[in-house]
Structure formats: C-alpha cells, structure tokens
C-alpha cells in the first residue's frame, strides 16, 4: 500500500492508476453522464458543521445498535458485485476485512463467490442483498440459502428493475472476464428476448419486475429483518413500511441506474421525517469522510453504507486495505464528534448543520 | 461508426473530430458568445427526477398522438438547413432514417434537396418548416408545394427575421461549398442593399419581416396544421393561438439567432401554463438524453424536437447513425419512464421534478 | 486587421497577443485581484433578454438625444488615459474614428495629446473628462481650455481621489515610456511627500481630495453640462443632483480603483430609480455586446460608454479598427432590438429582462 | 525579495515555489480536503463594498485601541507554530518585524524559540497563545512565564482538543526537522497510549481535554486579559463571556482542525450580534486584502489576525518581508477606507456591504 494512502480519496486515486480500464469503468462509472454520481459528493458541499467547544467528552463513543446487533460505529459495507474483479479471493477477502474492522458486510446477489463460502470465511455478521428474481421460487431459494448460511438481515434492492444506461462501461467495452460471474444465480437464459420494433424497453423486459406485493411476500416469507434499498421518496418509504419492511436504505445506487435523480443527502431529511423513527433509515452515496457521516446522521440516518471505496481499498491493499479504510472512516467520524462537541450519535441533530448558501441555518434543507 | 458511440454526446464528439472546421462552426456554432446555447444544456442541470419504485409497469408505453398522427415516442427531427454539408445525399438520407426510426422529420425551407425529392424518398410522415418570404406569393408557392408533396404539417419559424450574429461561423470564414444551396428557394437577389450610414440594420433590411398578420394569413391559406416555432413568451403564445395556429414550438433556435435569450426549459412552464392545453406545446434546445425529455414533458411539452444531433449522427453514421441515435434517445426515454415508475407519458407531471437548488421541489420554477 | 476580428472579444484577444506586457498590464489590468473587473462582465450573465416575435418594426431606430446632441446610437467613447501607448497618434486617431462612427469621444485629463490638438483634428463632438486638481485654479484652467476648444460637456471623475492598488501593473513593472505623459497637466511636483510612519495613506495625501463643494463650485463655474462619473450609490446620486450636475455616470472605473465594489449593472437600477429621470444616467463597465447595451437601457441607462475596447481596437486596427468596433456594437444593438421586437430605445424597459436565477423575472434585481 | 512581491498573494506564490514540500504542506495545508480553508477565502467573494464619494476625509485614520493598547491599525499577527521552519531565527525575527510595523505579535505555545527570548528581542507588545496542558500546573507555569516576560494578553485556543486530520501533511510525510520543536513545552511523553480496538479516538485521548471550567479557572488565575480563540457559535461566545473572558476570536484555526466547519466570516455577524459589544470580537481566517478587513469590521470585528501570510513573508523576505507585508495590508486598508469614504473604523458599518447574490443588500447575511 502506498504510504500516502491516508484517506478514501487516496484509495480512489491509486485504484484509478492501477486498475484495468474496463474494470475502472465498471467500478467508478455511473449511469449516463454521471450527474447524480457527482451530486452525491457535491451535496455535502452545501452544508457546514457547526462545532461546540470545551464540551465534556467523558465516555464519548460512536457505538450504536442495529436490529439487535451492537456496532462500534455506524458504518457498514454496502453490497457491490463481483469483488473478484479487483482481488483474487473476491468477497471472502472483504468479509475477513469487515470482521477485522468489526463491522457488517452486505453480500451482493451478484457476488463472485458463493454466499456459503463467504459466510464460512467470515467471523463477523453478514447481511445479504437480494435482487428479486423473475421467478418467485428462485428468489425464495436465495432467501433460504442466506438464512441457512447465517446471514442476519436481507436488503431488497428496488431501484434497478432494469440495468442503468452505463455509457462509461459501454465506451470502455467492459465485459466480465472469464471465470468471474454471479455464481449465486442460475445461468442467465440465452438472450432471446424478442424485441418489438415499437419499443426497445417496454416489450416484455419489465413483465417480471418486482412490485410492492413482491416486498410484502418477501417480508412474510422470512423471519430475518428485510430492509428496502433504493428509496428516494417519502411516499415510497411509507409504502415500504406498510409492506412490512424493517428498515429503509435511502440510495440512488451510487448513481449507477438512473442519472439525474437527486443525491441521497437531498432527500434523506424528507424520508426521515416521514418515517419518523418507525424503522431505521440508512443511507449510501458519496460518503467519503467522517464529516459526511456526521451530516448524514444529522439529517436522519441511523447508519451509512460504503460502496466503491471498499473496492478501491480491496484492489489497492487487499484485506488490510479494506480494514484500514474502514478504520480511517471511523477515526474521522470520532474526531468530528469530538471536535463538534458531540459525545454520542444521539447528540448529532440538525442544530449541528448550517446551509452553506445561508438559506436556512440550523435546519435540514 | 466507432464502437464507443453509445449516446448523443458521442456522436457530437466524433463529429467534432471529423468535421471540416467551417462546417463544424456552422453546425455547432451559435450566436455571439454561445451563452444561450450553453444554457440550453445547463437548464437541465437545475432539475432532478424523483423516482417511484416497485410500480406496476404492465402495458407501459411512450406512444402518443400529434395532430392525428400516432407516434411510438414523442421525439421528432427538428428542421435544420443544408444536410448535404454532412452527407452526400443530404435530407434524403435523413428522411430514410426517420422512417426507419418510425418518427417525423421536419424538412427545412433551407434544405439542400428539393422538398419533392425528400418526400419521394421518405416512407414516413414529413413536416415542412417555413420561412416567410419577402413576397407573400413566394411563401404561398412553398406552402402549395409542401401540400402537394404530402407534407402533414407546417412550422412557421418566427424568431429569425434577420440572421444571428454568428461569430463562430464568421471567425471560421464559413461559406456554403459549391453545389450546396437552399434549392427550394429562388436564387437570392444580389446583395445590393444600400445601407444608410446611420444604421447597419434598420434601413430596409426589416421592411419585409413577417408580422402577426402573416401568420393569420398563412393559417387561413392552408388546411394543414400550422405550428409557430420560436416562441419564448406566454404573451406571444396567446397571440399565436389567436392567429389560428395549431401548435407552438418553444425554441430559441438552438441559440443561433439572438444570444442571451433564456433556455427553452426556463420559459416552457410559463408558456405551457398560458396555453393551458388549447394546442400542443413542443420544445427544442439542448435535449440530449431521455431524462431531458421526461423533464420537458413534466414542464408541459407534448413532444420534443432534436436538431444538431441529427446532423452529428448523419455525419458520423449516415442513415444508420441517425436511426441509431433516435433509438438511443427512445431507449433512454423508456428506461427513464420505467425507473421513475411512469407507465405512460400522461403520468409524467410536475411531481416528478425537484429543483436542484432546493428552491421549489415538486413544482416548475 | 486579422480577418477573424468580428466582435469586441476578438479585438481584446488580438491586443493581448500583440501588446507589450507592461502596456497590456496597464490597459487590461485592474485593482487588486480584478474581482470587480470580472464581475462587471459576469453581471450580464445574471440576466436573460425576453424576445417578442412578429412585431412591427417599421421605422425602427436606435437614435437618441443627449444634452441636445443627436446620436445615431447610444454608445459613447469613455475617457481613458494615454492613447499614445497603443497608437503613435494617440487621441487624435481616436477622435477621427469617433467622427467616422458618428459618436462622441470623451477625452481624458490624462490624454497624451493636448486637448486643443485633439479638438482640431476631430470633426465630431467631444466631451472632456476632468480630474479635480489639488489647486482650484488648475482645475479652472482645464475647464476654460476645454470650453475654448469647443468641448460640449464635462465629466468630473469622483471615484479616484487616490490611485488604485494596481497589482497587475506593479508586477509587470509598468512605467510610462519616454515621451508619453499627461500633456494637459503641469508637471507633477517631485514626489517628496513626507509620509508619517503611522500611516502610508492618510497623512497629507488626501488633504486636497475633492468634496461635494468642489462639484458645486464646478457646476457654477461653467455653462457646459457637468456629468459626475463614478457614482455607485443612490444617496450619492441624490447629492450630485443637489450640487447641480447635468448627468450621472454609474461606473466603478472599470474595476481599476477599488476592488470588491459592485459591478455597475448591479447598482444601476437602484441609482436610476432614485434619479427618476431628473438627469440622464449613463453607465460603463464590462459592456462588450449589443445585448449588454439593451440590458443596461432596460435597467435605466440613457447611454453607455466603452473604455478598454477602444484601446484594443486602436492598437489592433488604428482609426479603422475603432470605427469598425463601434459599428459592430451598433449593429449588435440594432439586431438585438429587432430580435426582441423593440423598435425604439424607449421600448426597452424592465419587461425585457428575466433574472437567470429565476428569482425575479420581469424586474430589475 | 522578488520585485513583483506587491500583495499577500505574491508572498504566498513565492513561498510555494521556494519552500520544501513538507514545510509547504505543513504551512499551507489544512484539515482533510481543505474545504473550510478554501471557504475562508471564498466567503469574501459573497460581499461587495459600497463606496461613498466626495466625502470629507480630513483627519482620517485607521487607529484603534484594544485592551488599553493603542494600535495604528487593527491588524495583529496570529499565533502560528514553529517559525524556525521558515527562518533560522524563528519567532525572534517575527517579533522584530512586528515592532517595525508597529503592531502586536501573538506568540504560540508551540513557538520554536523560548517565550522569554522572543520577549527579550521584541520592542513592541506581545500576546501569548495558550494550549491548556493535560496537567493544570503545566498550564499555570506557562501563564506565569508569560506574565513574567511581559506579555500583555493571553489567547486560549479552544478549537483543537485533538489534532486535525491533516491529510496534506500526512501525504507529504512531514516531520519536524531535527532541532525544531516546541521548546516552551516539556518533552512529550513517549507515545504509549494504549488504544482500545473499539475506538481510535475516544479511549483516553480526550480525558484531559479542557472544558469550560478550565477557562474559568484560567481567567481567575491571571490579571492579564484572556481571549478565547476558536469560537464559531454564538452560544459558545455567551458561555465564554460568562466564564470571564476579555475577548473572543472567531476562528476555525485556518481550516486546520476540522474540515467542513463554516468560514469565520459566515458566523462572525451572528457571534458579534450575540456579544453585542460586551467584549471585543476579533477574527482570523483567509484575510489577504485590506478590503477583507473592511468587510470583517463591517460584520462586527474590532480587529483581525493574520496567520499564514506571516510565515510566507518570513520565508520570502525575513524581517523586512514581514514588516512589508503588514504595511501592504495597512495601506490597502487605508486606501479602502478612503475610497469608500470612511474616515474612521467606527464609520465602517453594515451599510457598507452588499450581498453579491442580491439577497440582502445593506445588511449582514
């Protein structure tokens, strides 16, 4: 690991330099023009943290509890596909790192290692991210396998009924290398979808897309907590709670599915206000600093998930890189708490925020 | 066609690389400093699309109807001059591509092929764009020729009574090459306009400019629907309806005539509010993505027109390029509808929009 | 003159390439960091022009009258020093060009040619810009000479009681070349100002600075109209009218004196509202396009003055360059009037404006 | 000293060119991404100064009084560590320069020369900046030494209970060179802090951090005026006054401790409004121009402190450089007063300000 790797931006920089162009386009690319991806970061530039000084910090801690699991700090590994693209051991390496850093890894449906092998290697809790499969039985099989392997929660991703328009990947001509594939899924049927000339998207392609009833059915089919990932609107959060979900992840899929949707930070306070504490609200998208996490918590998040930086660190530093990257974030978070005079996560509320444009100090936008 | 041509921006990039400098200045240039041209694009950056998830998309479609014509999707080819500048077959190639992509081409008064030859080659509906000629009889001749050749609608362009101050073209020293000219018009009289030293513009040059009475006369002279192209103000939309027009195209002529006028997107909601559904409102200017089209529809547009990208694609890929470019846009539009949970164009209303500056979420500016 | 010189920006570009570094720093430089100079331009980017179409333009004209002088168009030459820096004949060449372009030149107190020689060469009206001299008699001598030479108005510059902090000039080590000096002024006394160590500015340096009484005395001492140049605040406009001035020039001296003051466009509507037509309000600062002039008039200006572009054009094209540059501006102004549907200057009012930020359409900021 | 050194930006530029990379990272670097550091500068770009003209400037002066000390101008030297990094004589050279420029130097606890040696060399008033030490007795020893050496005031820094996340320094691998250290402090104990794996920050590291009671105790232990440095919130200003402080320094430590906190200028008016004249409010952070100082005073500051530019000037020009840099600032301040028509500091109030965004002219944000 280069000695100047001291922040998440450094991992990204080193990854950009060393990665294969196609892999880089896949990992760092986004939908269309990358507008939402850039805004995920830029959203944090609209806010200032307001520090209190000379506060008593005795017994300060960033610890929290999620679905009965004690966490030293509220930072989880987001689900991302195909870790073997950047490390020969793939998700197994990531899971080992998660345990070293004492946090939760969320394993993707599109993992490049079997979910059972990942669970066997891990010595810390895992969650499982689920894409609803065209056939309910296939979905249920994945659920039962995750339960059997000891996964502690399920995340149903709802914002990607079809793939994003990933121009960066397309321009780079990215294809999955030989030997890397979504091993937890049955082989995809040969692409013989007959497309009606009148529509490239709407003829058949979406007939099997999941609906609210899919979520309801899933919640009824498992005793694991089911989180819904990919909610941006308060109305959808309401529907998700009504369908029985145990938590919500405000997310735009890292800007990888539909470009021009808002950054998670812009809608998080609206969703959190609607949820009003009935279930935990998590968030991902552009979080790269401890101060970002303080802002997310102030806007209503119970915890955050980290996506691309995990792949950057896995590529640059392997197991050690991922564990170090997580510890950097934890350190930054705790330093930000100390320097703003907040001894506990619950002390982080909207009074810590000031809008940079002067519009509405002390309040979420 | 280069294999990395996967979006309209790619066509533009390849065109910029391969085109003759003068032709590029003509096609991609704009009036004065290009401020309005840039804002045509930038206007979209002020908006976010708000997606709904897990929606039922059964029977989803982007189809619509305009003046009795059924369209698979609401994207038309805008009128642009001299297609022979970028392709040896000129407008004939474009018309063939429009038919392949199952949409309408609008043929310019300044086409480099006779309007009859274009109509003969086309196997899909055509519209005809009209510049009012100094003499009414010349205007009427064009109308009668378009009617006879089977054109289905007329667009009267009203925002260019004089040419724009096209500094980019002037700096590049652009002149029409030998053999390319506005073949549908009589030869321009030799430029012997005696300019009074007191005014370079106002002495005689505008005496024959069209007025509201010209529009009224035109509407009375044909049974084709007459659209007025180049309206930016609600008051002018009202006057145009009063004069009998069948539709309005909100447009600043791609920023090519008067720099510093607002982008079409900024005034579209004001015009649409005033028109209030009495006639369809179309729009052009800077539309390069399916998400742009969703935004335009949310702000009141019934359909959009595409200008420069048609020339880019015609130069880069010929007939196939134009058809592919249109299909890319259609695909992006349909994907955006699916990913925002809108099964039909009529489901796209202002609640899909959020102002990026946080000013007025859920409402047009 | 290079053939691609088709706008004021082209003159600036060619001047930047050909000018001596010191002369360029003097002409194009500004106070401190050039913040105000940049904002003079940027202020125009906050506004859009709203065009009306199909308007009757019969008899359209940009002509106006100022202090009894008929002008074909409302664009004057602003006072700038030392034209010999860029042309061997200095202000004489500029005056000839002004007459060719049928407009008024304002001659600076710091002209590098005697005011009588300029007047002798000119065959069009001249105005004289005045700096109040430490001794009233010296000021009066200048006034009498201007009157005798046939100047038609006086501009008293009030925003420069001391020189600006012109870091760009200082870094370039600019000094007036041998043979170029302010020939209309007596030789400056040797710089033996004893500076008190406690203050580099306030000890003596400002004891002779002009006050409101200076203006009153000047207005009483001449029958020529006296304009006050360098007003940015409505309160000062009121005082200037009270002191007897015949007109006001809203100006920040091209950003050359105090950096961080607002652009003229930002305060023009406030000043114009206070003046309320009692005297004409002129404006300079960053005007480079005909559309800028339309905006200035919409915000309350009766006419505009052009500074640096005159020196650019004089350097690049001599007499012909200055005349061409002025005609370019006039052409752009008239084209903008035609394309916004305004047949006369008086038709240009705030309804032609839209704030780009959406804040307050149809009204000055 | 290079002859083009005519502003603080020039000193910064020359320093950047000549300094060792590590020293540059230490001096010019900031916490994390440097967001707050950049905003310290950018905050000034939100404001314009509104000049009044033809004002009577007889007897004008920038002089003021602080804690009974007469100052020719309200610009002090902020505390910064380790001046020997940029000059062999370290803080002694700076103190000599301060006296030449007739202003106050604030000596850092982390000075690289003993506070007694600095005092012996200085022939002008000194203030002493204090970090509360883990043991009160060590703090008290520093206070008594400063009193004995004749320091006139104490600044307790409260915004840095732990070091900032200084990534720029870390990437550059900066270490204090042999022979440069905080000589006024006892040797730091060997770093044997046992870190609990559950938290990199919160285990023990903050147990000795100062609290409000520390400030109260300090105020009671000395007859020198105690200023509190590092306040950004009005509530903390209130608490500081309650604890007995004699003055407040609004500061974010030059952006070196916690990134994303607001620029001092953004919160200064809020703090000043709360303090309401009970004690003087000083400010530092990004001040590089005389016009910045006018703005700070208009927003409620009694005086300003200058940090990094002192090190730039000390490196580039030694004693003479620092004295010149201070005189440049004084000259710019006085010129700004003269050109805005303010004869005394007390004439600088919020009516001199205009918000650049047009939001609230004539009032602090």
From TrEMBL, chains A, B, C, D:
UniProt-listed PROSITE patterns: FMN_HYDROXY_ACID_DH_2 (PS51349)
UniProt entry tagged with the keyword Flavoprotein: yes
GO MF term list: oxidoreductase activity
Cofactor: FMN
Enzyme class: oxidoreductase
Source species, domain of life: Bacteria
Keywords: Flavoprotein, FMN, Oxidoreductase
SUPFAM superfamilies according to UniProt: FMN-linked oxidoreductases
Name recorded for this polypeptide: Alpha-hydroxy acid oxidase
The species this protein was found in: Xanthobacter oligotrophicus
Lineage of the organism: Bacteria, Pseudomonadati, Pseudomonadota, Alphaproteobacteria, Hyphomicrobiales
């Amino acid at each position: 690991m280069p000695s100047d790797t001291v922040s998440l931006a450094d991992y990204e920089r080193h990854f950009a330099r060393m990665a294969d162009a196609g892999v880089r386009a896949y990992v760092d690319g986004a939908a269309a023009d990358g507008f939402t991806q850039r805004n995920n970061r830029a959203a944090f530039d609209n806010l200032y943290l307001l520090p209190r000084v000379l506060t008593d910090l005795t017994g300060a801690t960033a610890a929290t509890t999620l679905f009965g699991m004690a966490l030293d700090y509220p930072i989880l590994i987001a689900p991302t596909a195909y870790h073997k693209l950047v490390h020969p051991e793939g998700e197994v390496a990531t899971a080992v790192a998660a345990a070293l850093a004492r946090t939760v890894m969320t394993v993707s449906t599109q993992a490049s290692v079997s979910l059972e092998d990942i669970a066997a290697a891990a010595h810390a809790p895992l969650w499982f991210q689920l894409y609803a499969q065209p056939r309910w039985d296939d979905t249920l099989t994945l659920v039962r396998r995750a339960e059997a392997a000891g996964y502690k929660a399920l995340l149903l991703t709802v914002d990607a009924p079809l793939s994003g328009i990933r121009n960066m990947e397309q321009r780079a001509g990215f294809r999955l290398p030989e030997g890397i594939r979504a091993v937890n899924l049955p082989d995809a049927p040969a692409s013989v979808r007959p497309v009606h000339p009148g529509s490239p998207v709407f003829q058949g392609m979406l007939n099997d897309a999941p609906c609210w009833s899919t979520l309801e059915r899933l919640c009824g089919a498992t005793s694991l907590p089911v989180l819904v990932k990919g909610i941006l609107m308060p109305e959808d959060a309401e529907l998700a709670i009504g369908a029985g979900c145990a938590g919500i992840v405000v997310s735009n899929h890292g800007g990888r599915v539909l470009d021009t949707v808002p950054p998670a930070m812009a809608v998080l306070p609206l969703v959190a206000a609607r949820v009003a504490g009935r279930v935990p609200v998590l968030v991902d998208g552009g979080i790269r600093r401890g101060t970002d996490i303080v802002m997310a918590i102030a806007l209503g998040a119970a915890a955050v998930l980290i996506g691309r930086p995990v792949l950057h660190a896995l590529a640059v530093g392997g197991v050690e890189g991922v564990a170090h990257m997580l510890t950097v974030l934890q350190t930054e978070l705790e330093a930000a708490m100390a320097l703003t005079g907040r001894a506990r996560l619950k002390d982080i509320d909207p009074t810590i925020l000031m809008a940079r444009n002067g519009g509405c100090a002390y309040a979420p936008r």
